[in-house]
Amino acid sequence: MKELLSKEIDQNRFGIILLSHGALAEGIQESLRMILGDIKNIVSLCLEEGDDVEAFGGEIAVIADMFSRGCIFLVDMLSGTPLNQFIMSTARDRCRAVSGLNLGMLCEVVIARDENSLQEITLQKLVAVAVEAGIASIVDVATTLDVVKRERK
Fold it and tell me: Concatenated DSSP letters for 13-55?
């Protein structure tokens, strides 16, 4: 959270908050930087072993309140503590959550948010992009390669 507080927030854009058990969220955010460069209005919050769960929920609420337009939370898994703390800590009219965080999902959400006109992009559209990209990025590579080989023949 300290990293985000030191950066300027673009209040015209939705916030993207990554929540995870352990350092997964930070690792995915670092991988995103390798692919797309430095991105505004994104923060990762990691629940480490031994952390105070209620304090974690409090941090989620503080971060959500920083984005006046609203924010999308991309969370590592359904029914885990990070998602449960989101549910207990935020107002769902300004913030939405999608579980199953992966790098493909995150890249597509950032691109959708940053390349569309500010008037066109809505929180509901970002959620739809996240769900679609998350599903599309999970494939059986062997099957996909077999299809490509057959198409080349």
Answer: S-EEEEEEETTHHHHHHHHHHHHH---SSEEEEEE-TT--HHH
